[in-house]
Amino acid sequence: MKTRDKIVFAALNLFNEHGERNITTNHIAAHIDISPGNLYYHFRNKQEIVREIFALYSNELLERFSPIHGQQESLVLLKHYLDSIFKLMWKYRFFYANLPEILQRDEQLHEEYILVQEKLQTNLVNIMRSFVDLELLAVEEHEMKPLVTTLHMIASSWLGYRSAMSQKTHITEQIIHQGMLQMIAVVKPKATPQGLEQLQLLEDGVKAIHA
User: Fold this and answer.
1) N or C: which end of the chain has fewer CB within 10 A?
2) Using CA atoms, how far apart are residues 37 and 180, in angstroms rounded to an integer?
3) Domain region containing 33
């Protein structure tokens, strides 16, 4: 692995474990046993590393939440998107946990974030339409954008909300699974009988992980 990539992945691990605000470039350099000067050869400051991580996150986000064409079993599709929510929230949990703070101090990153999220919202509406076509959801066209916005808000703010509701919240897989259950609860009232059955299977699967 190239040194630049080692820096990025070391930073991601340290940010997730200790919080981005608590990690310096010296911590990152020491973690992979390189000199601070070597790190600064690749990145001028920590913020550039955060931007690089965001680029990885954005590519993965748009790839995972692109409409899937062709014949797919409905439960497989639902599970694919639910698994994607979990994997992204867990892999980039430092970003979800401190999103407003990270964006407020970097105008360029904030602009990039908005552009990516606008693309994501378009993709999510198209995914919602495919679930309507599969007769999993009964959602009118004018209801799709508000429903997608609600789901998007839960996903992007869940970890921040949980941190705010407890003085000692440490992000765990269980907390992320609770956020997934919250999203399922929002979708359930719009589900068809077939969709409700599939959502219940997914909900039971998530709950069983921590039973």
Assistant:
1) C
2) 42
3) 1-44
Query: CA distances (Å), 149 to each of 19, 65, 111, 153, 173, in order?
Result: 27, 14, 19, 6, 24
CA distances from 93 to 73, 97, 199 (A): 30, 6, 25
Q: Are residues 95 and 193 in the same domain?
A: yes
Q: Is 191 helix (H, G, I), strand (E, B) or coil?
A: strand
Structural domains in the chain (count): 2
Residue 8 CB contacts under 8 Å (≥ 6 apart), including other chains? 49, 52, 53, 56
CATH number at residue 93: 1.10.357.10
What digits encode the pLDDT tens for the residues 146-169? 999 999 999 999 998 888 888 777
- Is the distance from CB of 161 to CB of 181 less than 8 angstroms? no
Residue with tokens 């990539």: 5
